[in-house]
Every structure is written in structure tokens, then in C-alpha cells.
Amino acid sequence: FDGAPIPAYPEITFSNGRTQGSMVDQMSKMRVSRSEFEATVRKAARGADWPAALAEDLSRAAGALAATGGAGGELGLNMVEGDQRDILAATITAFELSLGGEASAVAGASPDLLAGCALSLGAEHGVGFDISTEGDCAKISAGPAKSIEIVEIFVAPTVWDRLQKLAYKSYVPASAESRLAGAGAGLTDND
């Protein structure tokens, strides 16, 4: 090491206009697979006593957002820690209603939640969504499918740790009492 400054790396700009930051910024984050990411967000929501269906919807929306370079980890964490299950349910309903051909609206959904739902439900149904906002109200209409670039998922370690702590609440403790109540293989494991 000769004391020369480390060269700056350029920002990475995705086709959707988002920037991922510099390579140095990416090195300070953890890379995770999409399945691991979605499972952790789903378990974090379940650890916070969210219904299974809403936990699944949140994990897909956060996963789709993260897979396109967005802040999916932060979306999942903020939704769970802020107990915003009602906003998620209303947003999913608005998107599903728009699949019938009529525009629908939802209030209170963040831009990241709208983007994540549009990406996940768009991929599921083979459509794209047009979203226009006025104040905190978003008008949603289904349209032709859009091309989306999928990238690696990077999560800040602090966000990942907080998601993992919430997910941990959904685990059954490894104790004789839990095994007597039906968890695991019971007190005798004969396989």
C-alpha cells in the first residue's frame, strides 16, 4: 500500500433509472439469493404476527423490488416494523381490481410498495401496471407487460440483521416442552 487513494467506482444505473451506488457501496452490503431474501421477509412478517397470506404478499413485493435494484429490504422492514398490513392489503386489492380492466385507487402506499406490488403482480399475471399519483393517492391501471431487468440482491447488514431478528420470533424453541407439544420429531427420533 503506497498511500494512493482508492479509485472511485462509478454508480451503476439500471434500465429502470435507479442507481445502485458505487462498487464500494455494494461491498458494504450483503448479497443474498432472491429465495433467501423472500423467505426472510416472510418469516419476519410471520414473527410479527402477520397473517400468512399478507406475509407472502409482502415477501414477493419486497423481493421483486430488490431484484430490480430497489430497496426491498427496507420496504419489508418498514412495513413489518410499522405494522402496515392494512396498507399492504389495500394496495394488493387495488392492483388485483385493476386486472379486471378498470382503474382502481389506493391511499397511503409508499412509492416502493407500489413499485414492488406492480413488479410482483405484473410478473405473476403477465401484465404491466400504470401508476399515477396525486398526493398520497395512487391510481392503478393494468396494461401491457413491461420488460424488467433483474439484478443481484444486495441488503445492508443492519437491515438484514433486523429482518433476521423479527424472523427469529417465528421459530419454535428447541426444548423438551416444544417437542411434547408436537414440534420436531418428538422425544424419540427413530429414523
Structure report:
By secondary structure, the protein is of the alpha+beta class. It has eight helices and five strands; from the N terminus they run αβααααβαβββαα. The strands form two sheets. It has a three-stranded antiparallel β-sheet. The protein has a two-stranded antiparallel sheet with strand order 1-5. Helix 3 runs antiparallel to helix 4.
Q: What is the H-and-E element order?
A: HEHHHHEHEEEHH
| Overall form | globular
Order of the strands making up the biggest sheet: 2-4-3
Structural class: alpha+beta
Poorly predicted tracts of residues: 1-16, 19-25
Largest sheet: 3 strands, antiparallel
Tell me how many strands there are: 5
Distance between the termini: 56 Å
Helix content percent band = 40-55%
SS field, number of helical segments: 8
| Residue share in β-strands | 5-15%
Radius of gyration: 20 Å
- What integer is the average pLDDT? 84
What layout of secondary structure does this protein have?
Elements: H1 23-27, E1 30-32, H2 34-47, H3 52-67, H4 72-81, H5 85-98, E2 104-107, H6 111-125, E3 128-134, E4 137-143, E5 153-155, H7 157-168, H8 176-180
Antiparallel strand pairs: 1-5, 2-4, 3-4
